[in-house]
Amino acid sequence: MDPVFRVWTPAPPRAGADASIPLPTTERKARSPMAVTSVATKPFSDQKPGTSGLRKKVTVFQQPHYLENFVQSIFDSLEGFQGKTLVVGGDGRYHNRTAIVTILRMAAANGFGRVLVGRGGILSTPAASAVIRKYEAFGGIVLSASHNPGGPDGDFGIKYNIMNGGPAPEKVTDAIFANSRKITSYRILDAVPGSLDTLGESRLGGMTVAVIDPVADYAELMGNLFDFAAIRKLFASGFTMRFDAMHAVTGPYATEILERQLGAPAGTVMNGIVKEDFGGGHPDPNLTYAEELVEIMMHRGEADFGAASDGDGDRNMVLGRRFFITPSDSLAILADNAALVPGYRGGVVGVARSMPTSAAVDRVAKAKGFGCYETPTGWKFFGNLLDAGKATLCGEESFGTGSNHVREKDGLWAVLFWLNILAVRQESVEAIAKAHWRSYGRTFYSRHDYEEVESNAANGLMDAVKAGFTTLPGQIFEGREVVMADDFAYTDPVDGSESRNQGIRIGFRDGSRIVLRLSGTGTKGATLRVYLERYEPDASRHGLDAQEALADLIRIADQIAGIRQRTGRERPTVIT
Ligand code: VG1
Ligand code: CO
């Protein structure tokens, strides 16, 4: 029995029933074609969007009414969309198509005039952002749990993007959550859309469904920003690259752009077929999860350039031959070399980075006279800065880099930016990074993640460190004096909105820093992220391994936060 094609009518509420327990389904009402049904429902208590939309286990989304409640809560938080265009697509993970069919039926029932949906239900996050902008849509719904694993036992997610193409800001996600707490019914059309696999238009109730090529608009945008002729020449000269799409959404995008348009040899793109369970992998482009690429690049040194992207195509990892570029350094290097890229020649006005991202880019901004902004974690905080023309390039330490070309981070964009720089400079990735450190100093950086920690233990740890905010300054750990300790709060310089509790910062006299945050994207227990950073101007010490260079800060973090004792873990789950 496929829930997609049914219209549910819930049983009457049971006295004292937990509002979060979905109601059983009883009957399917016979209706005339194209009728809009208002289905009675009850709120779920757990539909609060996190860092990037609502993420839950697939099994949670498969509960009757669960997706519908959230989608109706999105629509109920919007005004003025009647007759307008909605963009819909996802990263191709398990449940993507089922969810899209439901969303199309609900969009039609709620009065959207037109939906643009990627063929096969596919749209990467940055491509969805590009399509919203290009076609001046009212907004978009992107189905993805990004870097979280997929499949029947994996994760699913849904996020709403606004008219500028970017993630809904907090005032919208707060409104969605508030609606989800009081929802009593949702609207859905008693009809199913035509095939999602055939390009072209069809009608669904009063709405037009246009199935679009998910790659074409995005590829065209990339061609406008980067010097494709120079990159083609680079590949023609024998330059070798491996791009690991991790069986996720960037496969078709990378194959089209790198292999077809830029002439990279077939096989440059690895794992390029989108699979519903990402081939059983964890589509997170970092040194732990992109193991096949890491083996090729870091251990065997088989190509000049390596890159990977995540489930929904907004993250990137960049590798040279036996050389890892931290995302924080990547942002700084892109900012420093922007003049080499046609789309950014002379056009960088400012840079923005999330708070836990290293200050490497700040040094470039200072030297070049760019504006420089520090925001909370999550791309939604860059939207206003980009719209206001205050920032051109943005980045996060979590393998996210992007610019004002869309309003999401963009994995392939970052890879093409690097290729453009490599084509112009004709130097290796390693040589470019080392020259950057010589000019600006090296910012040693690492993030230690403790995944699926017991929630109470993680919250207790954070609370205990916060309780020490007044006594930490002045204390000396391994010769380092604490000069500040606080919980990061942000006032948006454009609209004045305030965001609190965005992560603990502990700063030391020499500028080094420890940051502690709890993840807002996990679906099981809590994930503690510990971010470590130290600046090293002395070039003779730039060759150190990051974990060695940060060893004392790693110990200090444990002394201050009692990480091992409180989490019961001897070491992090993932080190990036
Ligand atoms: C993580 C990253 C954050 C990123 C977010 C969404 O959030 O730290 O930088 O913006 O994922 O990225 P958190 O709350 O788990 O630390 V993605 O590629 O999942 O859309
Ligand atoms: Co992502």
What do these coordinates show?
- With 576 residues, this protein is of the alpha+beta class.
- Helix content is 31%, strand content 25%.
- The chain contains 18 helices and 29 strands.
- The chain has a 7-stranded mixed sheet with strand order 4-8-7-5-6-11-10, with helices on both faces. A 7-stranded antiparallel sheet has the order 22-23-26-27-28-21-29. Strands 13-12-14-15-16 form a 5-stranded mixed sheet, with helices on both faces.
- Helix 2 packs across helix 3 and helix 10 runs parallel beside helix 11.
- Mean pLDDT is 92; it is low at 1-32.
- Bound molecules: alpha-D-glucose-1-phosphate-6-vanadate and cobalt (II) ion.
Largest sheet: 7 strands, mixed
Portion of residues within helices: 25-40%
What is bound: which ligands?
A: alpha-D-glucose-1-phosphate-6-vanadate, cobalt (II) ion
How many alpha or pi helices?
18
Strand order of the largest sheet: 4-8-7-5-6-11-10
Which fold name is given in CATH as the topology of the largest domain? Alpha-D-Glucose-1,6-Bisphosphate, Chain A, domain 3
Portion in beta strands: 15-25%
Q: What's the Cα radius of gyration?
A: 24 Å
Question: What name goes with the CATH superfamily of the largest domain?
Answer: Alpha-D-Glucose-1,6-Bisphosphate, subunit A, domain 3
What is the 3D form? globular
